[in-house]
Design brief:
The protein is mostly helical. It has one domain. It has helices at 2-6, 11-20, 22-40, 48-69, 73-94. It is elongated. The chain starts with a helix and ends in a 9-residue tail after the last helix.
Length: 103
């Protein structure tokens, strides 16, 4: 059922995918950054907001996959609109924040 839903050419499907993907991607980037901090003693201060921006970049890869490979333009447009909205929110509210990684 989820597999068919992910293959539907629907703007709402793209919007939901665009909202879900950045969160786990940001946590993966934050975990990798922390691993690099511990191992190599570099990157002493990394903001969580920057990890969120990297998570949004993953949306662009997924959007390209939906538009070019699967030929699902409406789903890709939904991902694109949500990504641009989240980037706007980032630059309005989070770009100057000092929230650092909690670990």
């Amino acid at each position: 059922m989820i597999k068919e839903w992910l293959k539907s050419n629907n703007f709402l499907t793209g919007a939901i995918i665009g909202l879900i993907i950045p969160v786990p991607a940001a946590f993966v980037f934050a975990s990798l950054t922390r691993l690099i901090q511990i191992t190599f003693h570099v990157l002493t201060r990394v903001r969580m907001a920057d990890m969120f921006l990297l998570g949004l970049a993953v949306n662009l890869i997924v959007m390209r996959y939906y538009i070019r490979k699967l030929k699902l333009e409406n789903t890709g447009k939904g991902i694109l609109v949500v990504t641009f909205g989240l980037v706007a929110v980032f630059f309005i509210f989070l770009a100057n924040s000092n929230i650092v990684l909690p670990f």
